[in-house]
Write a structure and sequence with these properties.
Largest sheet of chain A: 5 strands, antiparallel
Helix content of chain B: 10-25%
Strand order of the largest sheet of chain A: 1-2-3-4-5
Shape of chain B: globular
Largest interface: A-B, 44 and 29 residues
Number of domains of chain B: 1
Number of strands of chain B: 6
Largest sheet of chain B: 5 strands, mixed
Order of helices and strands of chain A: HHHEEEEHEH
Strand content of chain A: 5-15%
Oligomer: heterodimer
Distance between the termini of chain B: 33 Å
Helix content of chain A: 55-70%
Distance between the termini of chain A: 119 Å
Structural class of chain A: alpha+beta
Strand content of chain B: 35-45%
Number of helices of chain A: 5
Order of helices and strands of chain B: EEHEEEE
Structural class of chain B: alpha+beta
Number of helices of chain B: 1
Radius of gyration of chain A: 32 Å
Chain lengths: 184, 82
């Protein structure tokens, strides 16, 4: 009789082993989580980007001329004339550079270019808007051919809506007229 | 002369500054200039044509190309097709 009870107990234990092992593992995990020190959470500073943009605006302002700065401040983009007569570019923050013919307003191309900071490639952070504009301005006015060669060229409308560019050209013309009449 | 570098999340940061006419300063500036270019930066000096009001940048590939009298060199990440 005793042997039977012993045998049955052993069989029951053997059958219950997987469940016991599973529960023991889960308990160990829970215990480890409870005792593990909490990782320090780095809270984003909501003012950081704004302060960076403010500094970038000041730097841009100190580099471009008064008209270009006023254009960026009032319209949100800068027009840069091409190395030769007959074409110009619109520089938008974090958007392709758009080439066009000032005389007719005809859009020529979009030049997709960016300035990735390789040390921050993993976080995917990018330059403040005004720094991006300044980088394009310096690269275009300093070595237009190299920038254009580096950029990916597309037909108008790939990233910047042509309707928007035409509206911006119209706004630019209005803006220049107002400035001109204010001066005279 | 100041060396500035555009950085995401910061705006520009001051890398170093010094008087290029002082030998020790110049050595430090040259060393920093090379380091930035080795890190893949482009360098430019904003300039303006006296009288015309037109401004433009001069891209700098060697330390010796920095225009005399330039008060700053701006380093920014090398362009790539977007």
């Amino acid at each position: 009789m005793l042997l039977t009870v012993l045998a049955l107990t052993l069989v029951a234990l053997a059958l219950a082993m997987p469940t016991i092992a599973r529960e023991a593992t889960a308990w160990r995990k829970r215990r480890a989580q409870r005792t593990k020190p909490r990782e320090r959470r780095i809270l984003p500073d909501p003012g950081r980007e704004r302060r960076a943009e403010q500094r970038a605006r000041e730097l841009l302002r100190s580099c471009v001329n008064e008209e270009e700065w006023a254009m960026y401040r009032d319209l949100g983009f800068i027009r840069v004339r091409g190395a030769s007569e007959g074409y110009a570019y619109l520089i938008y923050p974090h958007k392709p550079v758009v080439a066009y013919i000032p005389e007719t307003g005809r859009l020529l191309n979009e030049y997709c270019v960016e300035f990735p900071e390789m040390s921050d490639a993993i976080t995917g952070s990018r330059l403040p808007e005004s720094d991006d504009v300044l980088a394009k301005w310096m690269a275009l006015t300093g070595d237009e051919r190299r920038l254009i060669r580096t950029a990916n060229m597309h037909l108008p409308g790939r990233q910047v809506e042509p309707g928007r560019v035409r509206r911006d050209l119209w706004r630019l013309a209005q803006w220049e007229r107002e400035r001109s009449s204010a001066r005279s | 002369m100041k060396f500035l570098r555009m950085k995401p999340g910061h705006g520009e940061v001051l890398l170093t500054e010094g008087d290029p006419r002082v030998r020790e300063d110049e050595e430090r500036l040259i060393e920093e200039f090379r380091r930035q270019l080795d890190e893949g930066m482009w360098a430019a000096v904003p300039t303006h044509a006296p009288g015309s009001g037109r401004r433009q940048a001069v891209m700098i590939h060697e330390y010796d190309e920095i225009p005399s009298g330039a008060d700053r060199v701006i380093f920014f990440p090398r362009a790539s097709g977007g």
